[in-house]
Amino acid sequence: MPRKIVKAPQALSDIGRLYLNGLDLFGEAQAERLHREIYRRFDLLAESPGLGPERNEIAAGLRLYFLPAPVVIAYRATDEELFILRVFHGREDYQAVLSITE
């Protein structure tokens, strides 16, 4: 059974920000494609939670999953749940982005 996907409030805000930035820069069709792809990757991570490198030096159990967009999904997984902590552009300083997660 796949894990339940739990999105942190900041992750939801991140997704909205990425959508609006994509809408502004590339138009509705591309913003919608990225939005759908992010949610598809959540499903993938819920089924295969070991994807992406562990970043225990930032936070225990943290993994980063990189999409080609470039978008990064920061998450933790248990046997029951996938916790989406942040979703951010790959060119952002991930250590600065994730320092406020803890």
From the spread of the alpha carbons, the general shape counts as globular
Overall average pLDDT: 91
Distance between the termini: 28 Å
Assembly level: single chain
Radius of gyration: 13 Å
Main beta-sheet annotation: 4 strands, mixed
Number of strands: 4
The percent of residues in helical segments reads 40-55%
Order of helices and strands: EHHEEEH
Task: Please give the domain count.
Answer: 1
Strand content: 15-25%
User: What would CATH call the architecture?
Assistant: 2-Layer Sandwich
Coarse structural class: alpha+beta
CATH superfamily: RelE-like
Q: How does this model look, in words?
A:
The chain has 3 helices and 4 strands. It is of the alpha+beta class. The chain has one domain: RelE-like (YaeB-like fold). Strands 1-4-3-2 form a 4-stranded mixed beta sheet. The protein is globular, with a radius of gyration of 13 Å. The protein starts with a strand and ends with a helix. The mean pLDDT is 91.
